[in-house]
Amino acid sequence: MNFLKRLLLAAIRIGIGVLALAATYSAWSGQTPTRLLYFTTESNIGIGVVFIWAGLAALLKGVEPPAWLKGALTLYILITGIVGTFILPVPNLATEPVIFGVLARTFVVHRVVPLLALADFVLFDVHRRYKWHYAFSWLSWPLFFLLLILAHAHFMPAQGISGLPDDRNPWPYGFMNLAKLGVAQFSVNMVLLLVAFVVVGGILLAVDRLLPAKPLLLATKA
């Protein structure tokens, strides 16, 4: 029975990972490498790698991703989902590239993968492994991302990142466009964004503590 549980858990997690990597294929394959400068792309690639790792570990009884790392990617993809749903402009799904010939890419990276990652965290993760300071140490990648974008805009101010031929905008998101917003508004936006990371991270820590230590579904270990 344990093998069947491991097989099903592996299939679910590898499936989520493959979906996330398929949705970001154009970036990591080198077709449009500038798209790697989107936090959306980075968080989805991270989910893809970590979930395939976790799936193979469940199947083969191997070393699983560290709790800090999986928690970090869960936080990042949740922020991606929140920002994509409530802040970014609504995309025209009719003109979006599709994944597996069915789902619009933007819908997958901003809605489907975040929801699947959240469901995996609630249902399949071993809980009560997170430390309180994770809410702050998880800021390491967002801060690095911010520095990366500032450096890109400074050194390549006319290099767009969407991959479109006429794109000359070096900023991935409107709320990060320093040239347009000015230093004051940009600073306010970045502080609010970092606060959002800490708040959502704190909620993730609280939920992790409230849930039973043993996974709700498909527990494969005593």
TrEMBL record:
Segments traversing the membrane: 38-60, 72-90, 102-123, 135-155, 186-207
Keywords: Membrane, Transmembrane, Transmembrane helix
InterPro entries linked to this entry: Pr6Pr-like
Name listed for the protein in its UniProt record: Pr6Pr family membrane protein
